[in-house]
Amino acid sequence: MIKVGMLVECGRDGLEVHVCRRLCQLLGEHFRIQLQPDIVPMDNKQRLLEECGTVACLLFDNGCERVVILWDERPPWPKMKEPLCWHHERAKIFRALQQAGVAHKPVFPVCIEREFESWLLFDERLLSKVLSTDAHPVRIPLQRHPDRIPNPKGTMITLFRKYGRKRYVDTLYARSFATYLSDINRLKKCPTFRRFAEKLTGYVL
User: Fold this and answer.
1) Residues 143-182: tens digit of each pLDDT
2) How far apart are CA 11 and CA 17, in angstroms?
3) CA-only gyration radius of the chain, Å
4) E strand or H helix at 25, and its extent?
């Protein structure tokens, strides 16, 4: 049993909480290890960047062997002139870790290009299952380079309207995404997911 901590920038019932818990199960099966995730929802990017050191310290005190700080590249915070720049956010995280006295511990920042929906867009089978009903099965086409799409959340909104005639609200479909996520084969194509998997488990995907 490996207890792992994770900070995510969503609310208690948010998309990242449910999907990351499922990802821990799938990664555990893949590497034949047992992961026990302790996921802390930080509500938003500002709170995550400012309080990550304190929360990481608490996770280590609670028995976590490693901690991953997961955040989205988009939108940038604070709002800068350049469209996207995660380097200053990463620097802010390391300053917070140093101030909390955990910079020397196995705590790993992982920035998603561009946002969490980018990962989901890699798996067209997952999207098809979430949007399908018994009366109206749909087949979502493969998305080209989801990690390069300027606005992944906007793309998800468009797909929901076009194929499901539904309004995309991440919290409403968080459990469905987690339920229908059956493997990590598609996600392995995503560089930031591979980094996430390696830092979370200690194994190279």
Assistant:
1) 999 999 999 999 999 999 999 888 999 999 999 999 999 9
2) 8
3) 17
4) helix 15-31
